Amino acid sequence: MIEENVRSLLRQLSGGNCFREPVTLVAATKTRTPEEIDRAIAAGITDIGENRVQEFRDKFPLVHGGTRHFIGRLQLNKVKYLIGKAALIQSLDRDELAEEIAKRSLRAGLVSDVLVEVNAGGEESKGGYALPHAFAAYERLRETPGLRVRGFMAMLPDSSDTALLGGLCDRMRALYERARAEDDGIRYLSMGMSGDWQLCLAHGSNMIRLGTAIFGARNYPQTPTL
Question: Which string of b and e fits 115-152 if b means at least 16 CB within 10 Å?
Fold first, then answer.
């Protein structure tokens, strides 16, 4: 099933997004075993993303290949496990986290690639910079030594109102275009999960994060926290 799902998705993505831009498919690997992840990579997945630091730390040394992303909420005391290992931290959602990533990156002699997480729907349950303030946050963060801002990430609200969701996507795309006009290092608008990725691509996303669409329904084993 994993192999068939990957091949099907890659065929659907071969034409790019609505602007004919290439789309990066990130396999969201929360609760997935190293064996399942290896199967997805063998089928054509190039990028893999983990939501939990403990899983990133424990599973990923057992995975063969794949560009590693971190895509979940990140606590300050767990940043140290990602520096130099995550190719892209997608969930930079607050200034104090930026300071911690920057500090530890400089200490390691590195620059960490990050995406600015935007709370597109203004939801209290989600992290991220408010959409009206996201460009100012980008301008501030891009001047932070130790960080390299590569674009923006967002999760859409759980809603059946496609006009609402499409409008939020359009605002995210406008934010991305505004930043890209100033900085050719801006490459990614990461927006779209298993339930809404097609809508997001139709409104300009060029990176999607899919879990169940690749691996099927998740299992949630009880694991100790880091």
Answer: bbbbbbbeeeebbbbebeebbebbeebbebebbbbbbb
Tokens of 150: 């590569």
Q: What is the DSSP letter of 94?
A: S
What gap in Å lies between CA 63 and CA 46, rounded to an integer?
12
| 182's tokens | 């100033």
The runs of H, that is alpha helices, within 116-156 are 134-141
Hey, where are the domains in the chain? 2-215
Going residue by residue through the chain, which has 226 residues, state the pLDDT in tens, using 9 for 90 and above: 999 999 999 999 999 999 999 999 999 999 999 999 999 999 999 999 999 999 999 998 999 999 999 999 999 999 999 999 999 999 999 999 999 999 999 999 999 999 999 999 999 999 999 999 999 999 999 999 999 999 999 999 999 999 999 999 999 999 999 999 999 999 999 999 999 999 999 999 999 999 999 999 876 655 555 5
CATH architecture of 2-215: Alpha-Beta Barrel (3.20)
For residue 158 the two structure tokens come to 């759980």
Whole-angstrom distance, CA of residue 130 vs CA of residue 123 = 9
